[in-house]
Every structure is written in structure tokens, then in C-alpha cells.
Design a protein that fits this description.
Number of domains: 2
CATH superfamily of the largest domain: Class I glutamine amidotransferase (GATase) domain
Helix content: 10-25%
Largest sheet: 9 strands, mixed
Strand order of the largest sheet: 2-1-3-4-16-15-12-9-10
CATH architecture of the largest domain: 3-Layer(aba) Sandwich
Shape: globular
Number of strands: 16
Distance between the termini: 77 Å
Low-confidence stretches: none
Structural class: alpha/beta
Number of helices: 6
Order of helices and strands: HEHEEHEEEHEEEEEEEEEEHH
Radius of gyration: 25 Å
Mean pLDDT: 86
């Protein structure tokens, strides 16, 4: 019989989500690799991915974490594999499992941070993964991109969070024109098409950005005479030709993993861009432009003095005014 989906409320988000669930056939499983210091799905802290998990599940994607250390093989029911900011090196069997999966027609989202050496902020260079991506035409530069435009300060962001408003014409970013996105602790990405792989740039920083290669100092100082000036490409999308019709592999590479963390996922277009990537990877490009809008958080924040004013006005002053008006009417009618 016809497929039926129920919604818990009549909000735009719930209705659109129900339509998406009805239109899609089969399950879409997004599998997040764990075991090498990646972001965790159930982590509700600032750098956790619990909000990203909720976003995916509201759009009819099932999520789970998998370990490639225990068994270096990507489960066959994984629609998309996500490698989200590993802090430690992937051993060769794990790299080969990712390679086999994608070159067999799988879909992978790579989000790899700069190899920082700043005390607690220590991230491995992950040579196995970076070489694999280089073989597919994507070079992850060993740098840290800084935004010196000052625009980020309007949103409470520092120079270590480059803003992006320059998008290419790929399906992932075609609808993003005029929308800003933010990428904390990001590295630049270089691209070229190679045998069996076609690679496209996705978006870049403004010209008011620099890339420093000094990744071991707690204090970042720009040196315009040495540090390269932007704009810098921060992400790429690639297609691997398997030779089989409608079974090509797809991948997206982003030089930052924090951009979908809890503390910044709601920034401007980050949420939309994240879902665009996921929809393109799962061959659901038709859903890119019909994503439900998230209800705005319209909280009213009052100081202690303002709360006292509201209390006395509503509980004391207004009732007294009503009583006085009533007494005045009674007195005149005597």
C-alpha cells in the first residue's frame, strides 16, 4: 500500500520532514568512525556532535558510530561514512578499509583539522589518510587559515574562525550564495583531477585571510612577508569513477571538523551546508533546496533590575491603577 508518515506537530519543520521521509525509499545510514579521537555523536559539550546527530535524524538519516580498529571493514549498510577530526593516526588497515569502501562506490565525508602542536591542541598529521586523499586529487595543506578582515568580530568570532561567502557552482553550494558560513581552526585544500577522479572546489575565504605554517606556537603571529595571503579554498568534492553505471564513489573533504560542532552548527549557513553535503553524498540532490527551516530561538534575557521592574509593574502598579480607576468611577457616581 501507499507509504504513510505521521508528524507530531503542524510546524513547517515537522511537515517537511514527514514529506522527506515519505519520498525517500530505503534507509540512509550515516556511520561515524570512532576510536582515534574523533568527535562523538552523543557528546553534548561545545565540541560534541549531538546537534549534528539530531539534524541528520530529523532529515530521515539514521546515525551510529563504528570502529574500524576492531574490524577494518566498512559495514555494507553504511550509506555515508564520516571521518570527523581524528586526533591520532589511522593505521594502514583502517586507511585501506576507507579506500576499498569508496573505490567500491561508497560515500565519505572527510573533515580533517590542521596538524596543530599547541599543548592540548595536538592533532596528528595522519599521513595515511592525507596520502590517500592526495592520490584522489586533494592535498590538505599543513597550515592554519586566519581571517584578518575583522568581520568575524561582529559575531563574536576571532581570526581563527575564517568566514566564507565565496561559493563555486557545484550542486552542494549552488544554493548558498549570499549566506555566510564559519570554519573554526581550518586548513586550506588544494585540488586537481587525477585518473578516475574528478575533483571540484566548493568555497573559499576572503582575500583578507592569511595561512600560517607555524603550528607549534601557542601564540600565532602573522608575518605578511612569509605567510601566504588568501583567498584559500577550504573544501572539495570528488567523484570516483568505478566503471559501473550509477555506482560511482563520492567524497567531500573539509579542512575543519569543528564547523558542525554544537557551539557553531547554528551559525548562519553552517547547518544548511552540512545537510547539502550529506544529501549530495547520498545522491539526494533534489532535497538540497527543500530543507525545513529550524525554529528561531527567541529568548528574552532580562537583567535583575529589569526583572524587578517587570515584577512591580505587573504585580503592584497595574493592579493599583485598576483599583484607583474603579474607585474614581464609584466616587463620581455617588
Amino acid at each position: 500500500g501507499p507509504k504513510r508518515e505521521e508528524t507530531t506537530s503542524l510546524t513547517e519543520e515537522q511537515i517537511t520532514s514527514a514529506l522527506i521521509r515519505a519520498l525517500k525509499s530505503g534507509e540512509r545510514n550515516v556511520c561515524f568512525v570512532k576510536g582515534s579521537g574523533e568527535h562523538l555523536l552523543d557528546d553534548t559539550g561545545q565540541r560534541g556532535y549531538s546537534s549534528f546527530k539530531d539534524l541528520l535524524e530529523r532529515n530521515n538519516y539514521k546515525t551510529r558510530e563504528i570502529s574500524l580498529l576492531e574490524k577494518p571493514e566498512v559495514p555494507s549498510d553504511c550509506t555515508i561514512l564520516v571521518i570527523a577530526g581524528p586526533r591520532y593516526d589511522y593505521p594502514e588497515p583502517q586507511v585501506q578499509a576507507v579506500k576499498k569502501y569508496l573505490e567500491g562506490g561508497g560515500r565519505v565525508l572527510f573533515m580533517l583539522d590542521p596538524p596543530l602542536r599547541m599543548g592540548k591542541e595536538e592533532v596528528s598529521e595522519n599521513p595515511g589518510l592525507t596520502k590517500l586523499l592526495a592520490d584522489w586529487g586533494v592535498t590538505l595543506e599543513k597550515n592554519l587559515v586566519l581571517d584578518t578582515s575583522g568581520i568575524g568580530s561582529l559575531f563574536g568570532l576571532g581570526p581563527e574562525v575564517p568566514l566564507v561567502a565565496n561559493y563555486e557552482y557545484h550542486a552542494i553550494v549552488r544554493e548558498m550564495k549570499g549566506t555566510a558560513t564559519a570554519f573554526p581552526i581550518a586548513r586550506s585544500v588544494e585540488t586537481k583531477s587525477v585518473d578516475k577522479v574528478t575533483v571540484d572546489k566548493l568555497f573559499s575565504t576572503t582575500s583578507n585571510s592569511y595561512a600560517t605554517t607555524n603550528l607549534s606556537s601557542a601564540t600565532i603571529r602573522l608575518d605578511p612577508s612569509k605567510d601566504k595571503k588568501g583567498p584559500f579554498n577550504l573544501a572539495a568534492a570528488g567523484t570516483y569513477n568505478t566503471g559501473k553505471e550509477n555506482q560511482n564513489g563520492r567524497f567531500v573533504v573539509v579542512g575543519s571538523s569543528d564547523w558542525v560542532s554544537n557551539y557553531i552548527l547554528r551559525f548562519q549557513g553552517n547547518r544548511d551546508l552540512a545537510m547539502n553535503m550529506v544529501n549530495w553524498l547520498s545522491s539526494d540532490e533534489d532535497l538540497i533546496s527543500i530543507r525545513p527551516k529550524e525554529p528561531e530561538d527567541r529568548r528574552l534575557t532580562l537583567t535583575r533590575a529589569q526583572m524587578r521592574t517587570v515584577f512591580y509593574t505587573s504585580v503592584v502598579v497595574l493592579p493599583l491603577v485598576v483599583v484607583a480607576a474603579g474607585f474614581s468611577v464609584w466616587w463620581r457616581r455617588r
